[in-house]
Amino acid sequence: MVALMALENATVLAGGTPILDQMSLQVSEGQMVAVIGPNGSGKSTLLKAMLGLVPLDSGSVTVDGLPLISMTARQRAASMAWLPQDGMIADRLRVEDVVASSRFRFNESRHACLAQAQLALEEAGAASLAARWLNELSGGERQRVELASMLAQESRCWLLDEPANHLDPVWRARTLRFLSRRLEQGNTVIVVLHDVHLLGHIDAAKTRVVGLRQGKIAWQGHLGDDDLGEGLEQIHGMTFDRAVAGDREYWIPGEEQIE
Amino acid sequence: MMALIRWLPWLLMAITCAVATAWIGPSLPEEGGQWILRELRWPRALAGAMVGAVLSAAGAVVQILLRNPLATPSTIGTTAGATLGVLAALVLGSGSSLMGLPILPAAAFIGALVVTLVIASVAARDSARTEDVLLAGIALTLATGAIASGLRLGIDQVTSLSALRWSLGSLTIIGPDRISMLTPFVVISLAGMLWLIRPLEVLVSGIERARTRGVEVTRVRTLGLGLASLGVAACVATCGPIAFVGLICPHIVRRLVGSAPRILLPASILLGMVFLPLCDSIGRILWEQREIPVGVVTAALGAPVLFFLVVRRSRTV
């Protein structure tokens, strides 16, 4: 089976230092992948490399076996939707226009586009926001608009860069639950999390965990694996304590520095 | 099609207002008044409407493409580049032609495009901040201005004097011949920029986001800046550098109806169509017996607006 997304020996350099170092990673259709790792370990760059937003210095990215560089922007948009880390630009824009604009690849009439945008807003629980100005929304409301935009794009794979950033605990948990629902709907989800605590909010079974350190994959496994704790230690160079709440387990950085 | 019908009443209103500005000014004499209106003031109002529309639209497009609300053809050096091109053409002799095109607009376009693309390359770097783009624009404006002054010494005194008057930005020299030279450039530039509305709608959410949503960003940016430069260059070649229209009009529109290009761009065009002839008429009545060039009027209005915007930005950031 051809992987939906595949990185082959991908290297990205910044001023001679590798941010991604000969990284190979394959993600198959319908998988949930949580990418974790300390600051500067290359998590965001990994997503951008997959999206074709940063050029590779060596190696390749393929989507469905096709080299990314041979794909048009529209083809890429059909395969991958992206939620960046930096948040939305707070311009004076109508929410429905913003969501509708993420359907650019469809080349449809404005009427059809708005109708689909409305559906996406409803699914993200934001139907009431349609006519509001983007710059007047709260953090949680913006998050719903972001997710609605992702829905409207109708891409197969969702790539999210710390989608829980700047959100209150309730919205963090909601966002991650929303992603689990997308998985049930057949999407592939690759989500970057810098807070390992959030792993506990992912309720999708068989979530793959990929841990980066200095541009390399330091450990990978699955949520619920017995050696997840050791994996986190390898990734962060730090001991982790396991806390259990109900049927969820959470990982909290310990005191002790390894090395 | 629907969009066209929706905008039509507004377009008619803008045209009416632009034409109406012809009646503002020293009262027309009984004898020959109709002639002045028909031969002088209407062509001026018409040219003013076209130039205003292009400058305003170019401002809006440049702001979206460079993701910078302070970027306009006059702040990033496009206007200065076009001015330099025109002066270079005057030194060569304004009667000659370049590849079949009249040399004035052709030279203006080359100057405008070169400067704009330099600025675009500065703005495209990830590390570029708002201020960097403006500073690069100022640097290029000063550099081209210095060269232009030098060139002015190279032309004979009569041409030099008319070049000086032209370089203040004025609609007085407009005649039917100039209008017919201006029209095709205005039509191509405006139609092209309106045609880019769909990708621009995505670009307002950010360059990288637009890329992941299917927009060929590099192509749209090159096209957009090229079309804006073309329009601005034609305007500069016809009536000199008129600054700040591209800053003031889109800014007012944004305040009123928001930043969505779908509305911002057509509304900026319409406002520019009224704004520039109005400024021209104001210049006609401010000083008895004399005319203040329209470029001076827009600069007097625009400079405080730019100042205000910069101060407000630096306070919020």
- Low-confidence parts of chain B, pLDDT < 50 over ≥5 residues? none
What would CATH call the architecture of chain A?
A: 3-Layer(aba) Sandwich
What value does the Rg of chain A take, in angstroms?
19 Å
Question: Strand-residue fraction of chain B?
Answer: under 5%
Number of domains of chain B: 1
Distinct helical segment count of chain B: 13
Q: What's the CATH architecture name of chain B?
A: Orthogonal Bundle
Q: What portion of residues of chain A belong to β-strands?
A: 25-35%
Largest sheet of chain B: 2 strands, antiparallel
Name the shape of chain B in a single word: globular
The CATH superfamily name of chain B is: ABC transporter involved in vitamin B12 uptake, BtuC
CATH class categorisation of chain B: Mainly Alpha
Helix content of chain A: 25-40%
How would you state the average pLDDT of chain B, rounded?
85
CATH fold annotation of chain A: Rossmann fold
Full CATH superfamily name of chain A: P-loop containing nucleotide triphosphate hydrolases
> Distance between termini of chain B?
41 Å
CATH top level of chain A is Alpha Beta
Structural class of chain A: alpha/beta
Written description of the protein model:
The complex is a heterodimer of chains A (259) and B (317). In chain A, strand 7, helix 6 and strand 8 form a beta-alpha-beta unit. Chain A has a single domain, classed as P-loop containing nucleotide triphosphate hydrolases (Rossmann fold). Chain A has a six-stranded mixed β-sheet with strand order 6-7-8-3-9-10, sandwiched between helices. With 259 residues, chain A is an alpha/beta fold. Chain B has one domain: ABC transporter involved in vitamin B12 uptake, BtuC (Orthogonal Bundle), CATH 1.10.3470.10. Chain B is an all-alpha fold and 317 residues long. Chain B is built from 13 helices and two strands, in the order αααββαααααααααα. Chain B starts with a helix and ends with a helix. Chain B has a two-stranded antiparallel ribbon with strand order 1-2. In chain B, helix 1 packs parallel to helix 12 and helix 12 crosses helix 13. The model of chain B has no long low-confidence stretch (mean pLDDT 85). Helix content of chain B is 76%, strand content 1%. At the A-B interface, helix 2, strand 6 and helix 3 of A face helix 8 and helix 9 of B.
